[in-house]
Amino acid sequence: MAEKAKKHTGASGYGAAIKLYFKENLGIIIAFLVLSIFLTVFPRTSGTFFTRQNIFNILRQISTNLFLACGMTMVIILGGIDLSVGSIIALSGCVSAGCVARYHLPLGVALAIGVLVGLLVGLFNGAVISRTTIPPFIVTLATMNVAKGLAYVYTGGSPVRVVTKEWQFLGAGYIGIFPTPVVILVVVLIVTAIIMNRTKMGRHIYAVGGNQQAAEFSGIKVARVKFFVHAFSGLMAGLAGIVLASRMYSGQPTAGDGAEMDAIAAVVVGGTSMAGGSGKIGGTIIGGLIIGVLNNGLNLLNVNSFWQYVVKGVVILLAVFIDYFRNKGKK
To answer: Do 86 and 257 touch, CB atoms closer than 8 A?
Structure first.
């Protein structure tokens, strides 16, 4: 009887969690469905959008953005921002590709070094931000330029090509019927959700973002929380860098240009408050899907790339306004 009761409670607990998820994200879920339905039935995209090949293409493309968004969600919940992630993509991808093409290191070692490069930049960001009062915007703006410059110095401004099938598997391969980056993304999302929802560190992230002074008074080591979050963001950017380099068959110093904006857009559209203290990785997932489908739809509609920046800017602005009025209503 006790076991049956426990099973019943567990099932009802999962049901309640799913119900709460849809309740919290109903607005963006509806927006995502409306956008998807529009692209499915619109004459110019009806034959190309809702196909298996295009859906997998979208998922493969958004995986890089969602890697970044996992770290960016934590950073923004803290009330900060990380502008360096796009440049970390370029640097980690170029270094990893160079380890294979130039130094002939084993693939696993090369990929690990690429991720380590991202982690090291994140560790530096975390050390400076946690030990000083310098705003995260300034620190990560500086490391953004340093990482981008190092990527150009290392490559001489030219792509580092790697054409082996083993290299391409991470970004362009499949595990079963699913693209490899999507499988990796699922694992990353699960780990991120566990950190944010099931660990002491996750609770501390929300506490520091909500009220740093109160968190300090309650005994939370604020510096440790900031250090961890920025290190995690760098780690995710390093992972995104090697996956993108694998998908492009090369490490390119121009890779990741503007990637930080797409990551911020996914997080903000997903309902994370720029003021800090609130946000969920579940909302970020929907936000990433919206940005991915929007990019794909604009490409299928042959919208000029310059106008695509305008559209994404408007989407971010709308999300910020919604967040503003939502927070204003709580006061």
So the answer is: yes
Enter the tokens of residue 149: 């410059």
**Residues in a beta bridge with 251:** 160
Whole-structure pTM value: 0.92
Domain boundaries, the chain: 48-330
Going through 77-235 in order, the beta strands assigned E by DSSP cover 160-161, 174-175, 178-179
Token pair of 37 as six digits = 């339905």
Interior CA angle at 42 toward 37 and 47, to 5°? 95
Q: Kindly give the confidence (pLDDT) of every residue in the chain, 331 residues in length, as a single tens digit, with 9 standing for 90 and above.
A: 444 444 545 556 778 878 888 888 888 899 899 999 999 999 999 889 999 999 999 999 999 999 999 999 999 999 999 999 999 999 999 999 999 999 999 999 999 999 999 999 999 999 999 999 999 999 999 999 999 999 999 999 999 999 899 999 999 999 999 999 999 999 999 999 999 999 999 999 999 999 999 999 999 999 999 999 999 999 999 999 999 999 999 999 999 999 999 999 999 999 998 889 999 999 999 999 999 999 999 999 999 988 988 988 888 888 778 777 776 766 5
H or E segment to which residue 250 belongs:
strand 250-251
Give whole-number Cα distances, 260 to 86, 162, 204, 317, in Å. 5, 25, 25, 16
State how far the Cα of 302 lies from the Cα of 42, in Å rounded to an integer. Answer: 13
Let me know if domain 48-330 sits in CATH 1.10.10.
no
Classified as helix, coil or strand, 163 is: coil
Is the C-alpha dihedral spanning 246, 251, 254, 256 positive or negative?
Answer: positive
Reduce the DSSP state of residue 199 to 3 states and report it: coil
Q: How far apart are CA 267 and CA 288, in angstroms?
A: 7
Q: Which residue has the tokens 């501390």?
A: 204
Residue 49 CB-density burial (10 A; 0-12 exposed, 13-18 middle, 19+ buried): buried
